[in-house]
Amino acid sequence: LHSDVDKGDGSIKYILSGEGASSIFIIDENTGDIHATKRLDREEQAYYTLRAQALDRLTNKPVEPESEFVIKIQDINDNEPKFLDGPYTAGVPEMSPVGTSVVQVTATDADDPTYGNSARVVYSILQGQPYFSVEPKTGVIKTALPNMDREAKDQYLLVIQAKDMVGQNGGLSGTTSVTVTLTDVNDNPPRFPRRSYQYNVPESLPVASVVARIKAADADIGANAEMEYKIVDGDGFGIFKISVDKDTQEGIITIQKVIFIFVSCEGNIIEIIEKPCLL
């Protein structure tokens, strides 16, 4: 600081007041030079409002009106990007087409976004290729391979990096992890472990008796693996029915009705009598 009335003869002295005066900033009362007494962190406080005055050294009276000025702390790149919401978990359906959005990750940088590139972040994927990719500007993670099969591998661990200075050399970086789970779609048909089953059943079994329990295997999970069984052939008289055990997903074959078939000596069917279900 310098006053127009200061002739350089030492008759003027300068004083400082306001935010941080004496503790953070000091003034040379002879020259008006202001110095900082400690390191300043823009992320703690970006501006300081100070007041200065020039006084007559003999009378201690102002020679000019008090002036106010602002010291702005200029930013340097001293903060790395941070993923405040990480680590992330996400899910995407198996067999999703390439480019399907999975999740968006966001890194924040405490440096000044209005000054230089200190807070301009770009994203890259360090682990998780070639299955996934990340948009450099937005942080949106997408699928990068087609036909990813949950039944082959259902979970992937990704490591995403955010680097400031627009990714240039010398920029600071931070990382986060993203666990991606492939969710199931109904892409596997049920299959019986055996092509045929054979059971011997006493003819005296009453109606509603369990004849057999069979189970088809399904590589899907959840609702996509819930079974429904039907008898499609071989039971023209409707003697049997099949239902599903909701707990085990087994097909339960039971006797639905009993019939009596009367055959002649020549082997011809004479009469068929259905036994009532109540008996």
UniProtKB/TrEMBL annotation:
Keywords: Calcium, Membrane, Repeat. Transmembrane segments: none annotated. Pfam families: Cadherin. Signal peptide: none annotated. Its main location: membrane. GO terms for molecular function: beta-catenin binding; cadherin binding; calcium ion binding. It is found in: Membrane. The keyword Chaperone does not apply. Residues 3-83, 84-192, 193-259 form the Cadherin domain. One of its GO terms (cellular component) is catenin complex. The keyword Iron-sulfur does not apply. GO terms for biological process: adherens junction organization; calcium-dependent cell-cell adhesion via plasma membrane cell adhesion molecules; cell migration; cell morphogenesis; cell-cell adhesion mediated by cadherin; cell-cell junction assembly; homophilic cell adhesion via plasma membrane adhesion molecules. This is Cadherin domain-containing protein.
